Amino acid sequence: VNMAIWQFTLHFLPKEKVITYFGEIPSFLSFNDYYDADENLDISSPIQSELETYLDYFLKLSCGFERIKSWSNSLIIWGEDKGNEVNLFTAETANLEQLYAEVDLRNFRADFVDSLVEIAQKLDCILYTKNHTVISPTRGLLIEEIKQSRAYKFCVDPYGYLEQLGSTLDE
Fold first, then answer.
1. 123 SS3 class
2. β-sheet bridge partners, residue 89
3. Residue 95 φ/ψ region, left for φ over 0, alpha for ψ in the -120 to 50 degree band, beta for the rest
4. Helix (H, G, I), strand (E, B) or coil at 42
5. % of residues, the chain, pLDDT over 90
6. How far apart are alpha carbons 47 and 91 in whole angstroms?
7. Are strands 85-90 and 96-104 parallel, antiparallel or unpaired?
8. CA separation (Å) from 157 to 5, 107, 132, 153?
């Protein structure tokens, strides 16, 4: 994940696989818990090209996003470099491994957030956020999570955020 301080990252997790792995939908997942479970939470797609085609058309129509140059053959990226992005990692078996998005809070686009919610709902996913919380894919919940994020705090007051970060590191 190549994120910038102004990007809010969220991962799409298949709801049924989360329930199977954890026994419930947790409201919080530590970084370690998420990465320990990651290989069990892939979004398998029987026909990956259908999902790619869906994302190609949906992101073009909803946000005007097209594929952009990727640093890996296993990664497809839609959106704006270092801006709003949807990233699709694929496994060697051609099943989808990981789907995540980065929301650029320097230039907030409600249409992009709405598109992410719609994609999650279509794929029957829940969202694991950069705040380590797990939420249902709704616009209201996602915006509340964004407002709690470090990226949001940085964008609202960059100097104040860096001052606060510096004082915490000094302690």
1. coil
2. 75, 98
3. beta
4. coil
5. 50
6. 13
7. antiparallel
8. 12, 14, 22, 6
Query: Which residue carries 């915490």 as its tokens?
Result: 168
Q: Where are the beta strands (DSSP E) in the chain?
A: 7-14, 67-68, 75-79, 85-90, 96-104, 125-129, 134-135
Read off the pLDDT of residues 5-52 as tens digits, 9 standing for 90 and up: 899 999 999 899 899 999 999 999 988 888 888 777 776 655 556 778
Among residues 154, 168, 134, which one has the least CA distance to residue 30? 134
Sheet holding 125-129, edge to edge: 67-68, 75-79, 85-90, 96-104, 7-14, 125-129, 134-135
Q: Among all chains, which residue has been given the structure tokens 């969202």?
A: 127
Q: 3-class SS at 71?
A: coil
3-class SS of residue 110: helix
CA atoms in the 13 A half-sphere facing the CB of 167: 5
User: What residue type is 96 in one-letter code?
Assistant: L
And the tokens for 19?
Answer: 């329930």
The answer to whether the CB of 136 falls within 8 A of the CB of 84 is no
Here the tokens at position 117 are: 């919610």
pTM: 0.86
